[in-house]
Here is the input.
Amino acid sequence: SYELSQSPSVSVSPGQTASITCSGDKLGDKYAAWYQQKPGQSPVLVIYQDNKRPSGIPARFSGSNSGNTATLTISGTQALDEADYYCQAWDTSTACGVFGGGTKLTVL
Amino acid sequence: EVQLLESGGGLVQPGGSLRLSCAASAFTFSNYAMTWVRQAPGKGLEWVSAINGDGGSTYYADSVKGRFIISRDNFKNTLYLQISSLGAEDTAVYYCARHAGKEAATGTRRYFDYWGQGTLVTVSS
Here is the structure.
């Protein structure tokens, strides 16, 4: 089955740029999405189709996807961006959704 | 505003069954595929199952295939997940989420744009 891998944790200072990566075999051939989940809350879509932002998501969130790696970038990171972030893709061979294991972003 | 409201969770004994529901509002329900995602306590998200907008095609994770059944009633704007033969590993918050498109497994909209608040299923004796 298809797997997506994420680093368990990333730390960033306020105002700096945070990069969260997601790896999978030929992930660049698929569309990647990213979700933000704060403690006790439901996930929220922040990036879809590799690099598109839903309405209401700040412009400091951006995404890219090429080769085997998708990247979520948060520019000018704020304390309120502290959360778990999950990448997601669709495995066409099994017709199943797939999530990465999640990355805990700490802003300190 | 799009709303998804799950219900039906609770405490169930090992080997037992439950039916989860997800009531949708403020959008044309039949125009969107729907998905169930679960999250075990302290763990990450796990995709569970999906169904096309017309209910004609369903998809399951290997971990639940043969035990869970996804369905929908487009007249009642409600998504269901019948879960059975439950084990401790099925303990989780179950979220319903809307696909961005009508087809769950094809096209370019295979992501989830709205999520419910979740319903907790606890499997324990």
In short: Chain B has a mean pLDDT of 97.
